[in-house]
Amino acid sequence: MKAQFMLAAMATAIVSAQYLNQTDPFALQLESSDADVDGTYLYACHAGAAIEGLCVGSTDTPSADNNSATFYHNYSTAWSMDDSPVGYLTWNLPFTGANGGVETASSPMVLTYNPVSNVAIPEMMPQSYGIATLFDSEGTLGIVSSSDDSSNNSTDRPVQEAEVLYSWYACYSFVGGYYYHALAWVTAGEPHNPSCVAVDVVRSFVQRINAVVRNVDLNRNIEVHQTQTLLEALQNRHPPVHAHVTEFWSSADNLKRETFVGIQHQTAGGTFPTLRLSTSVPKWHLATNPDVNPLKSMQVPAAFVLLMTPKYYAAAISKGLYDPANPRKFQKTINETDKLDKIVKDRIFRAEACHNNALESVGLYAAAVVAGNTAGIPMSTMNNLSVGYVASRTAYMVVYVWLQDNRRFAPLRGLFWGVGIALIWTMFIKAGLRV
Ligand SMILES: *[C@@H]1O[C@H](CO)[C@@H](O)[C@H](O)[C@H]1NC(C)=O
Ligand SMILES: *[C@@H]1O[C@H](CO)[C@@H](O)[C@H](O)[C@H]1NC(C)=O
Ligand SMILES: *[C@@H]1O[C@H](CO)[C@@H](O)[C@H](O)[C@H]1NC(C)=O
Ligand SMILES: *[C@@H]1O[C@H](CO)[C@@H](O)[C@H](O)[C@H]1NC(C)=O
Ligand SMILES: *[C@@H]1O[C@H](CO)[C@@H](O)[C@H](O)[C@H]1NC(C)=O
Ligand SMILES: *[C@@H]1O[C@H](CO)[C@@H](O)[C@H](O)[C@H]1NC(C)=O
Ligand SMILES: *[C@@H]1O[C@H](CO)[C@@H](O)[C@H](O)[C@H]1NC(C)=O
User: Fold this and answer.
1) Ligand 3: centre distance to CA 44 (Å)
2) Cβ of residue 380 lying under 6 Å from some atom of ligand 7
3) Rounded distance, CA 267 to CA 269, Å?
4) Which end of the chain has fewer CB atoms within 10 angstroms, the N or the C?
5) Where do the coiled-coil regions begin and end (predicted)?
6) Which ranges of 262-298 does DSSP label H, i.e. alpha helix?
7) CA of 158 relative to ligand 5 center, distance in Å
8) How far is the CA of 147 from the centre of ligand 1 (A)?
9) How far apart are alpha carbons 182 and 122 in whole angstroms?
10) d(Cα 242, Cα 265) in Å, to the nearest integer?
């Protein structure tokens, strides 16, 4: 009895509770044995003034900026069933605010009933309450019912027990004043509307974009990481970019390598809503892959060119003793010849040794670059580390091959070798910290 009373109290509470915790945005996709609706996405369709239905769209993954296909789940920690929080399915209705900018109004889903039918129509409108819903561990949308009136006996009222129901259908129906192919809910029994086919409604989160945004005008790079909103990234710039942006999201399979984004700057007296994906305002350049920097993609090739330099140099100063057909015999030939003086011979030997040392180092370096790029180390950090590595290896080579004609320079070589290794390990450690 006590448990039943508590459930009843919770069911009442949902009417007055505030559901202000909100999930990340997601798209809603239908699963059905009916081929016409299986795999389609739902989108908010106009059903009246500030009222939207949930219409059956196409099977194409909605693009990140498609507001009508972007939904949220508002919940509170106060009520959950099987670890799934209960709350409202919400959609953000855009409207023009007082200052002329676009604002949004959170619109929870409710069910509207048709007196002649058991087919109820979900509608979303700006208000503070909706129907209790949850997404179960499979991401499937259910409605929470707190009592089932199908049973009654002479001793007791219907059992009051919270229960998750999945009675979704896709039907051709009036939604407000419009006739649509839309999501519907069948209260009990077989659908009264013969066009209805059973569906499941499954959510798929859109991803926070991991992007590099480059202001083409100012040529300033802004890196946005998974832990950061674009707005934070802009504000963390030095000097900060004063832009008022709504968060930018993208669905995974919809990421394009390069997309133009328009961001309007905040101006005195007015704010703008504003991250808009747009090809018409190519002011900001966005690429999902930080590899866009040409310097970065040249890092490894540059190291290989550097690696071969002492080898070619040794061959060049050997007065034709280098035999491309038998490179391994080169050392022995040099050792035995009397055509070269000792300084040149030693230099050739050091050039060979320098080349061998570079061979050992470059593999580790290439792996570090891959690790760093994969982990999403900021482009400028990677460039700096790489430039540092190539510079330290260049210095190492100069000391080893030329300066070491004089033995006193030997410690300097060790120093530059250490710098190169330290930079490689910096890449690995930074990559490790980000994963
Ligand atoms: C949903 O949560 C957001 C974020 O807290 C809030 O702004 C919005 O008003 C909530 N919507 C409803 C219907 O409670
Ligand atoms: C929900 O919101 C409350 C108040 O803002 C916060 O204390 C709580 O940690 C949030 N819970 C979750 C699961 O986000
Ligand atoms: C938004 O997504 C829905 C569902 O996939 C689709 O029907 C609609 O055409 C899209 N709208 C825009 C503007 O792309
Ligand atoms: C009537 O309902 C109560 C509550 O569910 C149940 O305990 C009882 O067994 C039922 N009686 C009969 C005769 O079905
Ligand atoms: C339904 O339950 C109520 C309360 O226990 C009881 O008074 C009534 O007779 C029941 N009706 C039927 C048809 O069983
Ligand atoms: C170079 O020649 C010397 C003597 O001619 C010999 O002792 C030495 O082992 C040779 N070194 C190489 C690398 O062939
Ligand atoms: C990379 O080097 C440039 C030029 O010295 C500097 O402005 C920038 O802050 C460095 N970036 C990082 C992440 O250290």
Assistant:
1) 9
2) yes
3) 6
4) N
5) none
6) 294-297
7) 9
8) 27
9) 9
10) 6
Written as one letter, the residue type at 318 is S
* Range 275-278, long-range pairs (CB < 8 A, 24+ positions): 275/230, 275/245, 275/246, 275/247, 275/248, 276/65, 277/63, 277/64, 277/65, 277/248
Q: How far apart are CA 248 and CA 262, in angstroms?
A: 11
Of all protein residues, the one whose alpha carbon is nearest to atom 6 of ligand 5 is: 154
CATH of 295-434, one of 1.10.1240.10, 1.10.1040.10, 3.40.30.10, 1.20.120.550: 1.20.120.550
Nearest protein CA to atom 14 of ligand 4, as residue: 153
d(CA 56, CA 40): 6
Q: Taking the domains of the chain in order of start, what are their residue ranges?
A: 2-205, 208-292, 295-434
Q: Indicate if ligand 7 lies below 6 Å from the C-beta of 221.
A: no
Ligand 6 touching residue 329 (CB < 6 A): no
- Tell me the CA–centroid distance for residue 190 and ligand 5, in Å: 26
Which residue's CA is the nearest one to ligand 6's atom 1? 335
Q: Which ligand is nearest to the CA of 29?
A: 3
Report the nearest-CA residue for atom 12 of ligand 3: 66
Name the pTM for this structure. Answer: 0.54
Q: What is the whole-number distance in angstroms between the Cα of residue 38 and the centre of ligand 3?
A: 16
Per-residue pLDDT of the chain (435 residues; tens, 9 = 90+): 333 434 444 444 444 568 999 998 899 999 999 999 999 999 999 999 999 999 999 999 887 668 899 999 999 888 899 899 999 999 999 888 777 777 889 999 999 999 999 999 999 999 999 999 999 999 999 999 988 888 777 676 676 788 999 999 999 999 999 999 999 999 999 999 999 999 999 998 875 444 444 443 333 444 444 344 555 555 555 544 444 333 344 333 333 333 334 343 333 333 333 333 322 222 233 333 334 444 555 777 778 888 888 888 888 888 778 887 777 788 888 888 888 888 888 888 888 889 988 888 888 998 888 888 777 677 778 888 888 999 999 999 999 888 888 888 888 899 999 999 999 999 999 888 876
Q: Is 151 in the pocket of ligand 4 (CB under 6 A)?
A: no
18 CA to centre of ligand 1 in angstroms: 8
